[in-house]
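User: Can you write out an input/output pair for a complex, sequences first and structure second?

Assistant: Here is one pair. Inputs:
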Amino acid sequence: MGGLQSEARAGRRRSWILRHSAIVRVTHWINFLCLAVLLMSGLQIFNAHSALYWGQASDFPHPLLAMDARPDQQGALRGVTTVLGHDFDTTGVLGLSYVLGFGERERGFPAWATLPGMQWLAMGRRWHFFFAWIFIINGLVYLTSGLASGHFRRDLLPTGEQLRHIGGAIWDHLRLRFPKGEEARRYNVLQKLAYLAVVFLILPAIALAGMTMSPNLDSIAPQLVILFGGRQSARTIHFLLAAALVTFFLVHVLMVLLSGVWNNMRSMTSGWYRIEHTEDVDDRTA
Amino acid sequence: MTERLDRRGFGLRLTAGLASLLLSGCGDEVSERPWVRHLLDKAEDMNYWLQRQLLPHHALAREYDEADLSPQFRANGSTDPEDEDYRRLAANDFADWRLEVAGLVERPQRFSLADLRTLPSRTQITRHDCVEGWSCIGKWTGTPLAALLQRVGVRPEARFVMFHCADTISVDRYYESIGLGDAFHPQTILAYDMNGAPLSVAHGAPLRVRVERQLGYKMAKYVMAIELVESFSHIGRGHGGFWEDRGYEWYAGI
Ligand code: HEM
Ligand code: HEM
């Protein structure tokens, strides 16, 4: 987040800053594409056995999460999602859903959420592993450049002063008040913490959990399986991390929309971000 | 001015992004295009290459304890072959069954179950990972494939070990293949016992393959013949196995 241009216009002062470097912008959008494909092809893979377990092996009668279709008292099929032993009727979305050209089908996630749409595990795996490679390579480019350029230290690490005022930041967020003027130059503290968690925790962990599911890699790196508490635990953690990413994504996009969508999106594509100086800030800094 | 331009540029980008998302929404059609398949196949090559680079040839899959055995070991694929020949063999407990070992070997031979049981044996408790996503732990006893191959002598041209099976799924006979590296791996065995009892029909009686560092579909059940070949492009639909012919990876290490 560097360069600065100022323009004075009809009594209001705006300045333009180059908020995101080209590498951050390009890798951000490649990463988004990868995650979209990985999520949807992952759900296709999940559907091949729509149940999750803990430990090394599958304890079939006791899944942590399961989606299937069962007949109700009238004999009509219902989609049922079981979470820790509690059943929920999720007909139409989870367990049983409509597939164009095939009708009502027993399947974990619905066709609109999976890649490919119809049940096709082999192809889902091909999409998943291809985009896993792009995701890893893209991630390494982002990480190396972020470390080398000081971007992480400068822009993602919260300052001590930001951490001390975290309470106020949370309160401002809840009221949807976003920083203005000089404060808008940098990420706010909640943004920084969320990005740090995604970049250094969730994304590396989901990649590791994915690799832990490989029986081949397990034979050279048995520590991986121990780390995740077993192969089925790794599958469950992989799934939970994917869910965490979806949650981050929803909040992230909501915040982008609410805190000035055009300005944000311009800055994440062309790099340029507009700072509006409020009168009193102007008075102080002028 | 700058703002206008940027907005238009951004609009274009957004449209392009949405278009590609929609495209993936119709992933079925995209997935059916041959060039997409070819491109995505590159990942399989990279995975294979990476795993070969990383993998000491004889790294062992983890072995577990009796206490870890799965109470219910799922049987998948064929669980009760209806093929006439197989039925007849099963009817008298596979006394007439012979494992034929042929192809690029010095001394083609046939082995009865009793013959196999007199060869060296290995017992291992391992985790079986199915491509569908579940895992079960089982105890397997059988003849190391290496011991069998040493008996028949592998000719230098041979590159793959093919397993021809007794079961037909829809219209095709099941078959599989592995490379020589995996064939000589100490944990690659031809199992005749599971959890201390003779293999049941559901799990592949009288003989199934265990290739512990790959996924379940590599571990052919109901093995009738072993053939050493230089290439498998003329067998089945040419991809090295029943599921490989249906789009699954030949090297099923992940
Ligand atoms: C799951 C998908 C996504 C992930 C993991 C993600 C992650 C991130 C991260 C880590 C950053 C900070 C980058 C840095 O400075 O190094 C960021 C910034 C940003 N992202 Fe995303 N992002 C995702 C999807 C999206 C989408 C779909 C949009 C658009 C609607 C978007 C819009 C933005 C914008 C505008 C910024 C800059 C925010 C600012 O300047 O304050 N992101 N994202
Ligand atoms: C390097 C990165 C990754 C690797 C190596 C990887 C690997 C794998 C593997 C091997 C499976 C098959 C599990 C099975 O046998 O059922 C799988 C499933 C799955 N993957 Fe990934 N994956 C990666 C990244 C991701 C990401 C980023 C997401 C989400 C955005 C994701 C979402 C899923 C989902 C939802 C499944 C379904 C099974 C489950 O819930 O674990 N994966 N992945």
